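Need the bound structure for cobalamin, inputs here:
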Amino acid sequence: MAELREALKDLNEDEVYRLVDEKIKQGVSPLDILDECNKGLMDVGELFAAGNYFLTELLFSAEIMQNIMQKLEPLFSQGDNIREDAGIVVIGTVKGDIHDIGKNIVVSLLRSHGFKVIDLGVDVPVEKFIEALKETDAKVLGLSALLNSTYPVMKDVVEAVKNAGLRDKVKIIIGGTICSEAVREFTGADAYANDALTGVNFAKKVYANK
Ligand code: B12
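Answer from helper R.:
Posting the output first, comments after.
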């Protein structure tokens, strides 16, 4: 799998698609393929931070990743114990942040596990999350964030849920590479995730206990 990470890091588009197709054919789990691609994108991010890659390369990496997702999404597990009405999840990338590749993966995986997902998109203002929670009666709110500058924004959303009188009913999970236990604590969310499956398991647990 290391070669896939390397090819993505080098933005060697054709080689990336060839390797992804090869892994799929070999029966490698789509989530494992995704993990390896994530590592490649982290490498791209580091090259960008170091000034070796520029915005063009960052955009190109996103385009490649979106094409990979077209291949992987249909393969996300349909599993054996999937309920059609697993629950409702409201999700969005918080205000100030337009990254959505990871969020879209979480949305696909939740849907493939039977959840109804209200996807608010990117750069979502605080009030929009609250409106959606009120309208849908969802018990799970997922916030996606990849920029350090969004820590206070996530905290604002959690506060707004509290102020709307919904905090007892709605469990909140924050996700994205910048999320950690320290960030969870700062924002007041209930959980954090650095991968999509953790989000699905969180939602399952919330609805199992309700
Ligand atoms: C691709 C990319 C872009 C693309 C995004 C395209 C798109 N449609 O999303 C573009 C080119 C637009 C972009 C723009 C910018 N980017 Co950018 N980008 C990246 C890059 C290389 C990959 C991100 C990605 O898609 N990863 C793949 C996905 C699958 O992983 P993921 O998002 O982490 O999601 C997984 C988990 O985290 C989790 N997850 C994610 N969300 C959620 C939500 C929930 C509820 C749950 C449960 C789980 C979960 O599940 C996902 C699947 O496993 C990262 C590098 C990195 N280290 O992350 C930089 C990075 C995030 N970008 C960065 C920066 C600085 C920017 C810009 C400010 C650059 C600029 N100067 O303009 C702008 C920001 C614009 C804005 N206002 O948002 C920095 C952020 C630094 C920081 N921590 O603050 C990074 C880390 C690069 C770096 N090292 O400098 N970027």
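Comments: The chain is about 55% helix and 10% strand. The CA atoms of residues 47 and 117 lie 34 Å apart.
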